[in-house]
Amino acid sequence: MMAQMLKNKVYGWLDQRFALGTMQELAGKKTVPVHRHSIWYYMGGIAVMFLIIQVLTGGLLMLYYVPEISAAHASIVTINSQVDFGWFVRSMHSWGANLMILALFVHLFTTYFLKAYRPPREITWLTGLGLLVVVFGFGFTGYLLPWDEVAFFATKVGLDIASQVPFVGETIATILRGGADVSQATLSRFFVIHVFLLPLALVALMGVHMLMVQLHGMSRPDSVKDQAVREEKFFPTFVLKDLMVWLLLFNLLAAFVSFYPWGLGPEADPFAAAPAGIKPEWYFLGMFQFLKVLPAYIGPFEGEHVGMALFALIGLAFVVIPFWERGQNPVRKMWAELFGSVILFLFIVFTVWGMLL
Amino acid sequence: MNYPIWDVPYLGVTGIIGLISCFHICIVNFAVGGGMYFAVTEQWAYKTNDEGVYDFLKRLSKFFLLLTTVAGAVSGIGIWWAVSLGNPNSIHTLIQTFTLGWAEEWVFFIAELATAFVYYYTWGKISKEQHLKLAWFYAVFSVLTLVIINGILSFMMTPGAWLTTKNWLLGFFNETYWPLLFMRLVVFAAAAGMYAFVVAARIQDEATKTKVLQYTTKWFIPLFIIGPLVGFWYFKNLPPDAVTNVMTGIQASGVGNFSILARTFYLSLIMTGTILVFAFVGPYLNPKGFSFHAAVLFLLCGLFVTSIGEFTREMLRKPYVIYGYMYSNGIVKDKVPELNKVGYLKSSKWVHDGMTPVEIGESMFKSQCLMCHTRHGYRSMERLLGERDEQSITAFLQMLQMTDKEKNPYVGIMPPLVGTPDEVAALATYLSALTGTAANPPVKQTAALPYKPVLVK
Ligand code: HEM
User: Fold this and answer.
1) ipTM confidence score
2) What's this model's pTM, rounded to 2 decimal places?
3) Hey, which CATH number is domain B334-435, 1.10.760, 1.10.3680, 1.20.120, 1.10.8?
4) For residue A205, which of A174, B91, B245, B333 sits 20 to 30 Å off, Cα-Cα?
5) DSSP codes of every residue in B319-371
6) Residues from chain A contacting residue B312 (CB–CB below 8 Å)
7) Which of A220-229, B120-129, B352-361 has the highest mean pLDDT?
8) Residues of B in contact with A80 (CB under 8 A)
């Protein structure tokens, strides 16, 4: 009795201030279709879960990490070997980043093949692409922070590649580096980008992305369009299932962390020769490998320039796809599917190729 | 030391025993936990006279019977085989010490199996009261098998007063006997709940499905309250050195020597925690949407936890197989000084006149290292020795002979290396030949041993 009254009172207070009723209505509006492709509806949520882990562990790491080239590496050593559960938090952050990017790739390609980008979800798709760029940025900048040998040289190589982009490349690379070489300025910039700029961008894009998802509900793929499909309430039914998936994947992450704690190479020595076989992280490896196998010159152009122009075109194609393939023209649909399949295939082939070398 | 040595390439003897045991424990926890679950649940079905629940129990018992009698019994025998081949010295000691215990274990085991069959085949053939009694019989027999085996397993970790008195009952009811017994009862009961989810997820009738899933979630709640308490109780009674290993892992698990122990321990804590949340958000709050796949994945997580829990418990005991008495490689701790003096291989039937140092070294390797290491696979010599040459291997081995923690950081992790300087030198020669760091390929020559080896034809 008392408890019920108290509950009503608290609810009333909150409702007046936050319009809980309206929010509940919004939450109750979204439904999720149940069909044989439903499993892909979990992917975005999985990315959210990993993101939450990144935010929490990242915050903890900042308590001990020192973004200064003579202390950065040592601070990671301290985290790994002296701070209580420091090794755990750091491994969570590193493994979590990789699993998150993997989940994002799956999310991107499955929404692509389910044609979830079609009207009215163009904005969802575009903010999604923006999020991918942001997450790549997190990966690239975060990689340098431990200031170990591979990190240093991979960043150097990565920025050198970036500087090859015609017209703007050199300027961008110089701004990122803070000069001609990877140095303290680079580390400071990468740190600020990693913990300040990108999170801001992420929050903004995520906000729009999620709002759009909430407004439009989940898309239905063509193959089940005409069937009578049961719709499930997003809140609470689907959320509860989401939570189960999250727990399972959290366990997977914990298993990686426990069995393969994230290592740390020797401290970077800018004057040493680059160790052989420097490779970027696996998510950049496909592109890296592709550039590597291009001939030095293709016709009158430099091979790398051609490669980058090609990446730009592919990126552009992903941007315009929702405006071009709108679900009205079967021929365009076929081309979109073909394009997606080729890109996915090449991405996998070149990534595996790069790993094997 | 004169038992034949089972040399398993790559996987190692430990690997084989470990794999079979992990599989076995996953089944056994259902065999014992299931006993309790059936009894309590059938009591509930009887009280509420709910045919839906009876139907569910019938289906569960079919799955249960198949799994425990076939997979459980076969893998149990598998452990016996693997351990007698892989670690004959320890099983020898255990059989000699607990002859009566083992005999009882087999009696209860047979009673358990027989009851399981009768339980399944008498559904609907005898009265409900009688069937309920069978359920309780089964529960009692299966718990009794645990009551016995638990004495022997806990003895290996904490042999307690047996060390000085050699009284087997004192060894049986040792310091960790009660906490480990309760810990296992809790874990097994929880596992039974997870198996039950798998079968319950497929119940067609929605009302029954909801009822059974929510009932089974509640089954977990007391377990998760008692679990941490008995876990703590168990920990309190462990040898301090073993606990230190886990605690140092809080800071240095990423780099520590033996940190896998600590890491798997934390992992099992995390996974246990998530299981409770999972049961709450899944089967309890959303029973209608709880699918068979989710139940299976959930079960796999649970079984993974029990396996790594057992793995941690086994690792905790290192470097002993019977704590404080016998090392993992079967060497009795008190014999070490003597063996160092007269020679470890002196009474070995596997060495004979005319053996090269490499061959003698290999004998040393097989009987002292192979129990936990392999040449090129799991915990391999190749990887662990790396680039060390014969000289530095010798220095390393000499360090492994010391029993002072200051001088030998491996004390408490690896058994001390036992043998005369010549034997140690032979081992170093063998190891450097193995890893390919030997300066010159060793010439065929007879080793100088301080004793005359026994000749075998
Ligand atoms: C940090 C990165 C991202 C997060 C946290 C995120 C999160 C989500 C969530 C929670 C959903 C709803 C559930 C689902 O469909 O899976 C969703 C939907 C969607 N996302 Fe993302 N996403 C991210 C990146 C991306 C990327 C890289 C793309 C593709 C370029 C993308 C495109 C979409 C589309 C098109 C939908 C609508 C799916 C439908 O209606 O069927 N998202 N996102």
Assistant:
1) 0.86
2) 0.88
3) 1.10.760
4) A174
5) TEEETTTEETTS-BGGGHHHHHHH-GGGG-TT--TT--HHHHHHHHHHHHTTT
6) none
7) B120-129
8) 252, 254-255
